[in-house]
Here is the input.
Amino acid sequence: MSLGPGRYAGRVTPEQLSDAIVAALTALVDAGTITLPDGVPAEVLVERPKVREHGDYATNVALRLAKKAGMNPRDFAQLLADELAKANGVASAEVAGPGFLNIRVDAGAQGALAPQIVAAGEAYGTSDTYAGLKVNLEFISANPTGPLHLGHTRWAAVGDSLARVLQAAGAQVTREFYTNDRGNQMDKFGASLMASAHKVPVPDDGYHGEYIHDLSREVVAEHPGITELPDAEQLVAFREAGYKLQLAEQESQLDNFRTHFDVWFSERSLHDSGAVEHGIDVLKQNGHLFEADNALWMRTTEFGDDKDRVLERGNGEFTYFASDTAYYVNKRERGFDLCIYLLGADHHGYVGRLKAMAACAGDVPGANLQVLIGQLVKILQDGQELKLSKRAGTLVTLQELVDLIGVDSLRYTLSRYPTDSPLTLDVAEITRQASDNPVFYVQYAHARLSSILRNGVDLGLVPDAGSFDPSLLDQDREGDLLRALAGFPQMVARAADLREPHRVARYLEDTASAFHKFYDVCHVLPKGDEEATDLHHARLMLVAATRQVIGNGLGLLGVSAPERM
Here is the structure.
């Protein structure tokens, strides 16, 4: 058994060690040394131990399988350690504690990863885990009646990062923006623009803020005769023209924030196309609708909802939930296997009804529909919470946040934390160029790595796989850095599985730390008149691999990877 052949040829990664452990277990079963009634697992969890002295990697597989094999966990682990130690590339496998297995790998096998990362380039970290899976990711649902605000900004960063992570894991992802362009709020929007154009007070229940006056002036400039139309016609004209301008502004601001949507879906189109009636017909066929109290209901309580839901009132008016239902049916009929919804904290009550709705449609919640809830964000400036927008008069807007904080700092910081955690962010802290600012720390590592490579070129040195000797990378700090790089694909797959893009940011910070510690003790380039050695070449390759991984990770977060800072 060797760690060389196969899809991880010549390198040691957690995934490769998992394959080697599975092979060792299979050999023990085939020899009759152990018995596993449920068979050998297809994969084994391999992790980096928190304490370096415990080895390069560790696994608890013996603790999980020993009982099934009818053995003491330490005895089981020792048999596995003896078998695994035969694998080329494994320096040692030792039993620890109640049955943990600590694994050390040969420096040569571990170092072989560096040139393969460089060769893989942007593809390193990607996988085919979700190959063939079509995902619809809806992560902003907004009214086209005003600017995008802070809540939308968090989802713009997190949702886009999640899309990138899922794509890295092989999924075909469609980013979808749902426009709430139907209902009374649209008429109020039109009336507000119309009032501004005629320089009369905006209705109390209308939309206020400087943006209304800006939009009104734009509408009049594009349609000079609009204020001469009859009132009813004029209101519709202002509504539709303002809608078009506001939606275009939202798209432009999101593009500037590096969040690009594949589909801009109109709620209005559901009703205009007959999709709502069609969605109700689909549910009728599944037998989960009933009539009562002069209304049409969906029996969502059959699937865990706290009460049944009205779809159509006695007057023939469809409820908002009918739109939700039709929209979900529409997504599934467009061929999406999984529909993911990212919703704000104020929509927590929607989770149960959406899952029940999917079940009523004949689907499996969790497999076909998933809902993520995001908590609120507070932004502090000079110790005070930013609440009011200069332009919107309400919550601070996405564009104001970008102008104040910057795209990189804002995206990184909003993606760095679990979505179910409330956030309080200080403008001064997240924009400060210091090593204790995570985004600066990671970007500085990339810039430093780029600088080393440029200096190498000035000395006539470039990473060269042909002259690379992986066995020379045997220092502890080199090993730490190599293990960090080896863990990148596993981390990306885990982030995709758990829908947690914040894992990418935390990984990058750990890897940047491993690089800085390596660079503090390991000279990469020759100094003065010193001749370049094979060790310099080996470390330069490690630098190139590290730069690639950090760049790939920043790309998953939609954050730039600067070459100079």
Observations:
- The two ends are 47 Å apart (CA to CA).
- Residues 231-256 form the longest helix (26 residues).
